[in-house]
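User: Before I run my own analysis I want an independent prediction to cross-check against. Here's the chain; please return only the structure tokens and, at the end, one sentence I can use as a sanity check.
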Amino acid sequence: MKILFVASESSPYCTSGGLGGVVGTLPRALSRAGHDVKVCIPLYRQIDRARHGIESKGAHCVHMGKGEIWCGRSACDHGDGVEAWFVEHGEMFGRGGMYDEGGNAYPDNLGRFAYLSKAALQFCKDTGWIPDVVHAHDWPTAPAVVFRKTWDAWYSPLEQTATVLTIHNIGYQGTGEKGVLDFMGIGPEHFTPNKFEDWGRVNFLKAGIHFADAITTVSPTHAHEIRTAEGGKGLAMYLNDRGGDVFGILNGIDYRDFDSATDTMLPAHFTPDDLAGKRECKRALQERMGLWQDPGRCLIGLVSRFVSGKGLDLIQGMLERALREMHVQAVFLGSGDPTFHKYLADLQARFPGQVATGSATTRAWPTRSTRVPTSISCHRATSRAASRSCTRCATDRSRWCAAPVALPTRSGTIRSGTAAGQGSSSTSTAPNPSTTPWAGP
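Assistant: Structure tokens:
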């Protein structure tokens, strides 16, 4: 089968949690099983093009409800015969974070990821690579399922393509103002309680549950949990309505990447028969995090999103007592709710040598290449209609020529770079996300 993974993140390029790990490794496992698989994610600013061998492949016109928006398509080898595609649009994805900055979500997130979803399907049609299955992940790419069943329901190369939606975290549902439906080109007939409508607002995950051919989640136990009043976070009745279309498939890991006997990221190796290297790994972690280097002390580690759904609120009541009364240390790595960040920082200050915290957002990313890709911009064109009159582009509308173009942003500043929005800026003023056409009213 041909399978397209559409997601907001993927290892090794960019990840904030388990979603990125699954999208990074599952396509490779499916490819080794004999399937033809591609992955499509945004080309965020933090992704190192040079390190991953990401190259520009051309430009694509994506039709949305309020007109056409062009983007670049870049690609690289994802491993095991899988190709990774990247949606390149500077104003939408060339920002300091993936979903937020400083704990504040971007106000145009619904429009940004709706565009990602539509662009992924457009790439398939433009390249002639038509998947048998589109596999969307969580609320950011749930619109891919919606677009397949609405825009591409009839007279489309994708009309026979099946859809799967995997729910990694049902606590995040992609809710916001209903004006984004106009940007998406989704009619009011879909703004109903069993599809998009959620207390007068839109809910992307809810719509994905309605339109997907199959819904999966990360384990059989979790598949049961999300169909209960407590675990469903308001969506249990809609999942129960889908009956046998909801499946729980246990998440796995790639033992080629996570093998303590060979993992190059470990300071020492170990096996079940020889744990000496594990003791050295513990000592190195204690040293790196500024903890007491005590080989006899129990070291507790947590790598997670700092949100209540991960159980951090459950351990707050006992953690301080454990640090006072037991021979333990604790290391926390993650990002999320500022309340938990403050709590853990205070804990570290009161228990030096026992507690260490770090933020996934402050991780040292490799230096991003400053090479500006070619073949994605046109010296005259910022739309398909304009490119028809360009003698350098008229012979091949699948790409734009490499001459730079100055683009006015909605805030009135001039950004010199490429028509896809990448490149250096002639001003430090960033576009205002709340005034972009994909932000909705």
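Sanity check: The two ends are 40 Å apart (CA to CA).
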